[in-house]
Design brief:
The complex is a heterodimer.
Chain A (H helix, E strand, L loop, with lengths): L9 H13 L14 H19 L16 H5 L4 H6 L1 H15 L13 H7 L4 E4 L2 E2 L6 E2 L10 H6 L1 H13 L21 H4 L6 H34 L7 E2 L3 H8 L2 H11 L1 H26 L3 E6 L9 H21 L3 E6 L7 H4 L8 E4 L4 H6 L6 E6 L1 H6 L2 H15 L5 E5 L8 H17 L3
Parallel strand pairs in A: 1-2, 4-5, 5-6, 6-7, 7-8, 8-9
Antiparallel strand pairs in A: 1-3
Helix pairs in contact in A: 5-10, 6-10, 11-12, 11-13, 12-13, 13-14, 18-19
Chain B lengths: L4 H6 L3 H14 L3 H20 L5 H18 L14 E6 L7 H12 L3 E4 L6 H11 L3 E5 L5 H14 L7 E5 L5 H7 L3 E3 L2 H14 L1
Parallel strand pairs in B: 1-2, 1-3, 3-4, 4-5
Helix pairs in contact in B: 2-4, 3-4, 5-9, 6-7
The chains are: A alpha/beta, B alpha/beta.
Chain lengths: 452, 210
C-alpha cells in the first residue's frame, strides 16, 4: 500500500520525487506522451544518470554533462535579450534550438529571460533589463541598493509578509507604491469594525495598484503558456529540465535584495543580533519555498544561488557565525522533505568547502565555479555530488581542443567513484558554440569510458 | 592624550574612534592632522586586507567610519585639504555593465591611498574614457566589469585609447568577476587585479615608475 507522505523517511521522499521526475505529466495530469520510444528512453536515461550521480549509491552509465547558461541560448540563436523578453515565439525557438544543437543531459529551461511587459506593468525597480535601463543587446542586471533600512529589522522579524507588502514592495515595484496604505491583515479578526480595514481598497491609488497587478497577471499567463508548452514539447523530445524551483540562504536573502551588500556588511558590526534573529525567522519560509516548488513541479532539485559567503566576502569567523548555520538549516529542511538542494557556489569558495562537508551523503548537488574542484572532490565531494567547472573565459576565448583538454582533466580528477557531472562553472552569456559543443560531446565520449 | 585614532580606526572600533575625533575637534586640534591620522589608520586596514587578516566587510566598514569622520571634520577645515596626491587614475565600469560594488571598493582604496581618482561610474561609453584621459592626463586607467560581455567592452575601450594616440601614455588595469590572464591578453590590458589591494599596488608601481 502507498505510504503517506508524512510517514515516509527522507530517503523515501527523495526516491518518490525522483520517481515523479521519471514520470512526467501533461497539464491535464495524464502521463506525458513522448515523441518516440527513443525520446522516452533518452529522457529516462538522462534523469537516471542525474539520480545516480546525486545519490552516490551506484555509478551512472557514464558521466552526465549539463549546459547551464544564462543568456547564451539567446545570443546563439542570433536574437537579442530584448527579443527573448518581449517576443515569446523568438524565446521558444531560441531555447529549443539550444537543446537540439547541444543535447546536454540536463538544462535549466527557457524561463531565465522572463516576460518584459510583466516587469513593466509593475514598474519593477530592482533590476534594469534590455530596453529598460540597459541596451537591448545586454542581459538584465541588478540595481544594488538598501531596499530595507537597518531600523526595519524588527518589522521583518515580527511579520515578514507584512513587511514585504507594506514596505518592501512599494520600494521595488513602482506600481505598488500605494501598498503602503494597505491594512495590517492580522487586524482582521472580527465583524465589528471590519469595514475600516477595507478603506484602502476604496481609494483610487490602491485601486490603481490592484489594476496593475491584474495587468501583470494577465501578461504572465501569456508567458507561462509559452513556457509550459516549451516544457512539454522539449520533454516529449527527450530533453531533461533539472530544476523544480529555487530558494536561498537567509544571509543572501537579506544581503542580495533587502539590505544590499554594503548594508548587510555594516549590520554584522552594528546590529549582529538583529541580523541573526531575522535570518532565523527566514529559515522556515525558505524551506517552504523550495519544498513547495518541488511538490508543484514533481522534481527534487531545488536551486540555491550562493553569493555573499564567497572567499574574501566574509572572514571565516563571519562565515561560520552569520552565513553557514541558517544556510545549513534550510538545506536540512529541504532534505527532510526529499528535495535535493542544488547550491551554486558562484566565485571561489575554497575556504568554505571543509565546513560544507557537514551534510548527509547523497542528498545535495553543488555547482562549482572558481573553487579548485579537484580539492573540493576530497572534502565536500565525499558527501555531495559536484558539477563543474569549465571556466567562462575558456568557453568564450578558448579553442575546442583546450575545452576538451579541460574536460578530460576534470573527469580524470573528479569522476572516479561517481558523484560528478561535467558542466560550465558559471552562468555564461557569451561563448563560442563550438566550445560548448566540444564540452558536451567530449564529456559524453570520454565520460563513457570512465565507468566501464 | 585621548586614544590613538590611527589604531582605533585600524581596529574598526567605530564608537571609540568617533569619540576621539569629537574630543580632538572640541579641543581645537588641527582638522587636517585628524584626517591624516585617519588615513594612516586606513593604510593599516589596507595592509591587513592584503595579508588576508581583513576581508571585504572590514574594508566596507572602515570606509563607512572614515565617511563619518570626514563629515565631522569637514566644517572645521579652514583651508583646502591640500593633501599631496600621488597621481591621477581614471576608473569606471565598462559599457553595458552596471555592476559597481567592486569598482567602488577599489576606487575608495585608491583614494585613501593618496591617488586622485576620476570615477566615471557604470556603463561608461568608450569615448567617455578616452575624453577623461585626454582631459586629466591620467597615466593609469582602471576598467571594471562583471559580465562576460565586459570582455568586449574592455577590448573596445582599450582600442579606442590606442586610436586616440594615447595608448603609450597610459597603463591599463582590468578587474572584476571572471578575470584571468586569457582575458587580459584578449582585451589588450597591461594587467589584471584580483582584488582592491592588487589594484592599489598596480597603480603605485606604475606611477612611481613614471
Amino acid at each position: 500500500m502507498e505510504k503517506q507522505w508524512a510517514d515516509m523517511t527522507s530517503d523515501e521522499k527523495q526516491e518518490a520525487l525522483f520517481g515523479r521526475w521519471l514520470a512526467p505529466k501533461d497539464p491535464e495530469g495524464n502521463d506525458l506522451k513522448f515523441q518516440s520510444p527513443q525520446a522516452e528512453k533518452a529522457f529516462k536515461d538522462r534523469v537516471t544518470r542525474v539520480k545516480d550521480a546525486v545519490q552516490m549509491k551506484k555509478l551512472p552509465d557514464r558521466v552526465p554533462v549539463f549546459v547551464l547558461p544564462s543568456f547564451f541560448p539567446v545570443y546563439n540563436a542570433g536574437i537579442t535579450p530584448y527579443d527573448a523578453m518581449y517576443d515569446y515565439d523568438k524565446l521558444y525557438a531560441a531555447y529549443k534550438k539550444f537543446l537540439v544543437e547541444f543535447e546536454p543531459d540536463g538544462h535549466l529551461g527557457a524561463d531565465m529571460p522572463g516576460p518584459g511587459k510583466f516587469f513593466e506593468a509593475l514598474d519593477y525597480k530592482l533590476y534594469s533589463w534590455p530596453g529598460h535601463g540597459v541596451a537591448k543587446e545586454q542581459s538584465y542586471q541588478a540595481n544594488e541598493g538598501e531596499y530595507m533600512k537597518p531600523e526595519e529589522y524588527d518589522d521583518l522579524i515580527q511579520d515578514p509578509t507584512g513587511f514585504f507588502l507594506h514596505t518592501y514592495f512599494p520600494r521595488i515595484f513602482g506600481a505598488l507604491g500605494p501598498f503602503q496604505a494597505l491594512p495590517a491583515f492580522t487586524g482582521i479578526l472580527e465583524m465589528y469594525g471590519l469595514g475600516y480595514n477595507f478603506i484602502p481598497f476604496g481609494v483610487p491609488p490602491v485601486q490603481q495598484s490592484l489594476k496593475a497587478l491584474m495587468d501583470a497577471g494577465n501578461e504572465v499567463m501569456k508567458w507561462v503558456g509559452t513556457i509550459m508548452q516549451w516544457n512539454m514539447e522539449t520533454t516529449a523530445m527527450g530533453h531533461n529540465g533539472i530544476l523544480a524551483g529555487f530558494t536561498k540562504a537567509p544571509f543572501d536573502v537579506i544581503g542580495d535584495t533587502l539590505r544590499g551588500t554594503k548594508g548587510i556588511m555594516m549590520d554584522m558590526y552594528r546590529c549582529p543580533d538583529k541580523l541573526l534573529e531575522a535570518m532565523d525567522r527566514l529559515v522556515p519560509l525558505m524551506i517552504k519555498m523550495g519544498v513547495g516548488a518541488a511538490q508543484m513541479n514533481g522534481k527534487p532539485l531545488v536551486f540555491m544561488p550562493l553569493h555573499k559567503g564567497a572567499d574574501g566576502f566574509l572572514s571565516q569567523q563571519q562565515f561560520e557565525k552569520f552565513y553557514w548555520p541558517t544556510f545549513r538549516k534550510v538545506m536540512m529542511g529541504l532534505i527532510a522533505e526529499g528535495c535535493v538542494p542544488f547550491p551554486a557556489a558562484e566565485g571561489s569558495w575554497n575556504t568554505r568547502m571543509e565546513t560544507f562537508q557537514d551534510l548527509p551523503k547523497g542528498k545535495t548537488i553543488w555547482m562549482i565555479d572558481n573553487s579548485d574542484i579537484a580539492r573540493v572532490k576530497k572534502t565536500l565531494g565525499k558527501v555531495g555530488c559536484l558539477m563543474g567547472n569549465v571556466q567562462s573565459d575558456l568557453l568564450v576565448l578558448g579553442t575546442p581542443q583546450q575545452v576538451k583538454d579541460n574536460v578530460k582533466e576534470l573527469i580524470d580528477s573528479c569522476a572516479k567513484g561517481g558523484g560528478y557531472v561535467v558542466s560550465n562553472g558559471a552562468f555564461f552569456d557569451r561563448a563560442k558554440a563550438e566550445n560548448v559543443k566540444a564540452m558536451v560531446d567530449f564529456a559524453k565520449e570520454y565520460g563513457s569510458k570512465v565507468y566501464k | 592624550m585621548a586614544g590613538d585614532l590611527v589604531n582605533l580606526l585600524a581596529d574598526l572600533k567605530e564608537q571609540e574612534a568617533l569619540k576621539v575625533v569629537k574630543d580632538r575637534l572640541g579641543k581645537g586640534d588641527d582638522a587636517l592632522k585628524i584626517l591624516d591620522d585617519a588615513r594612516k589608520g586606513m593604510e593599516i586596514v589596507g595592509k591587513r586586507f592584503a595579508s588576508s587578516q581583513y576581508f571585504i566587510p572590514d574594508l566596507v566598514y572602515s570606509g563607512e567610519i572614515l565617511k563619518v569622520i570626514s563629515e565631522l571634520v569637514k566644517p572645521k577645515l579652514t583651508k583646502a585639504a591640500g593633501t599631496k596626491k600621488l597621481g591621477k587614475v581614471v576608473f569606471g565600469t565598462v559599457a553595458g555593465d552596471i555592476h559597481d560594488i567592486g569598482k567602488d571598493i577599489v576606487v575608495f582604496m585608491l583614494d585613501v591611498s593618496g591617488f586622485e581618482v576620476y570615477d566615471l561610474g557604470v556603463d561608461v561609453p568608450v569615448q567617455k574614457f578616452v575624453d577623461k584621459i585626454k582631459e586629466t592626463g591620467a597615466p593609469v586607467v582602471g576598467l571594471s566589469g562583471f559580465l562576460t560581455l565586459a570582455f568586449d567592452s574592455m577590448k573596445q575601450t582599450i582600442e579606442a585609447i590606442k586610436s586616440a594616440g594615447l595608448r603609450d601614455k597610459v597603463k591599463v588595469m582590468i578587474g572584476g568577476g571572471q578575470m584571468s590572464e586569457e582575458v587580459r591578453k584578449y582585451t589588450g590590458a597591461d594587467a589584471y587585479g584580483k582584488d582592491a589591494m592588487a589594484g592599489v599596488s598596480l597603480a603605485q608601481k606604475w606611477i612611481s615608475a613614471g
